[in-house]
From TrEMBL:
Localization of this protein: Membrane
A Pfam family it matches: MauE
Gene Ontology cellular component annotations, sorted alphabetically: membrane
UniProt keyword Transmembrane helix, yes or no: yes
Membrane-crossing segments per the record: 58-86, 93-112, 132-150, 162-184
Any one Gene Ontology BP term: methylamine metabolic process
Protein name, as recorded: Methylamine utilisation protein MauE domain-containing protein
Length: 378
């Protein structure tokens, strides 16, 4: 009898905690993705490419619409989280949440089980999760959902009913979509990438600390772990493990700038004051602002701060040569990996200002600065 007496109050409190966590996590997850909708779109493209290879070309249809889907799905997470916290149409909201959880659970399980996508992008670039961690996170959310769904009788009070509830959900939708659309047309509000303003690229190309190892050795059927490789030759090597894999690996591993002949210019680019015009791909680049871009490049070349303008692209030499003539873009140009350029800036084209390899400024093509602004940053 005492157990029965105390079970309902405990269950009521536990349900409310699960309800609160479920709503907050969905809002947080959606907002983090809306902070960088292009990054979320790139992750969706990665999933669609994998599925189109494994399950048929149907999924390739979604690749051109990845940015729209990025904002839609991220905004949906925010709106559903708000609806849960308001307890607005709670039963229907929970069914939609279940659909999302099952969908994301399938994605993360498939990625983890078959090693397809190494980072799910669940929390954008703010929190990196391994595939299995992502899957277990989805299972925890599914557990929270089950508690809330099974105990809705403890959540009868609705904080926004009727017209007021519709108004709140409409506002939440407008705010979420607005956040995503603005980030899409400019740059992320918060930059969590290795090339954010203030970061020292040459420094990040080096390990934070020396790698530390432990060695598993074997002798007469006995295994033993050593911090140093044993000098006793009777021990036979079995395996080796890096104790500090994250800190012993550079944060930036693939930054490389080269010319059409393959000659490396990375060290040159990371010295002095440089204004890099990043053209991720000539075919996809927005061509409307190249008159203003050309004027900035010309003004920068005459700067009293001796800023050298350079162009970096991932297009082929032939494709980019035709492109630069089409948009009347003059200047020295180099080449880099497409993935690196997408990580450097979420804008095509976009500008990065460097001072001895330190990122001093980043600009979307909708926010082209003037030469005096660049001088102020150096």
């Amino acid at each position: 009898m005492p157990l029965l007496r105390y079970a309902p109050p405990f269950m009521k409190q536990f349900t409310r905690i699960c309800w609160l966590l479920l709503g907050v996590v969905f809002i947080f997850s959606g907002l983090v993705k809306l902070n960088d909708p292009i990054g979320t779109a790139l992750k969706l493209e990665e999933y669609f490419e994998v599925f189109s290879k494994d399950f048929g070309s149907f999924f390739s249809v979604f690749i051109p619409h990845a940015r729209v889907l990025s904002i839609f799905l991220s905004s949906l997470e925010v709106v559903l989280g708000v609806a849960v916290l308001l307890r607005w149409m709670l039963r229907q909201t929970l069914w939609v949440l279940l659909g999302l959880l099952v969908f994301f659970g399938f994605l993360t399980f498939y990625s983890a089980a078959f090693n397809k996508v190494t980072d799910c992008g669940c929390f954008g670039d703010f929190i990196k999760l391994t595939p299995w961690t992502s899957f277990f996170k989805d299972m925890v959310l599914l557990g929270l959902w089950a508690v809330v769904f099974s105990n809705q009788r403890y959540l009868r009070r609705v904080f926004a009913k009727g017209t007021l509830g519709v108004m709140y959900i409409t506002i939440a939708s407008a705010v979420a979509i607005g956040i995503g659309v603005r980030a899409l047309g400019h740059l992320p509000y918060f930059d969590f990438l290795p090339y954010k303003v203030g970061n020292n690229i040459p420094q990040l190309m080096k390990p934070q600390e020396q790698a530390r190892y432990q060695y598993v050795m074997e002798r007469n059927g006995e295994s033993k772990t050593f911090a140093e490789y044993p000098t006793d030759s009777t021990w036979k090597y079995k395996s080796m493990e890096v104790l500090n894999p994250e800190k012993s690996k550079p944060l930036i591993t693939d930054f490389s700038i080269f010319d059409a002949d393959g000659k490396d210019h990375t060290a040159e680019v990371l010295k002095g004051n440089k204004l890099l015009l990043i053209v991720q791909g000539a075919a996809e680049a927005d061509r409307d602002r190249f008159k203003d871009i050309g004027e900035l490049m010309a003004a920068t070349a005459k700067s009293r701060k001796q800023i050298q303008p350079l162009i970096v692209t991932s297009s082929s030499p032939q494709e980019f040569d035709a492109f630069r003539h089409d948009v009347n873009l003059a200047g020295t140009y180099y080449f880099a990996d497409a993935t690196v350029l997408k990580s450097m800036i979420r804008s095509n084209p976009g500008f990065i200002l460097l001072q001895n390899g330190v990122v001093k400024g980043k600009f979307h093509y909708h926010d082209i600065p003037d030469a005096s602004k660049l001088e102020e940053l150096l």
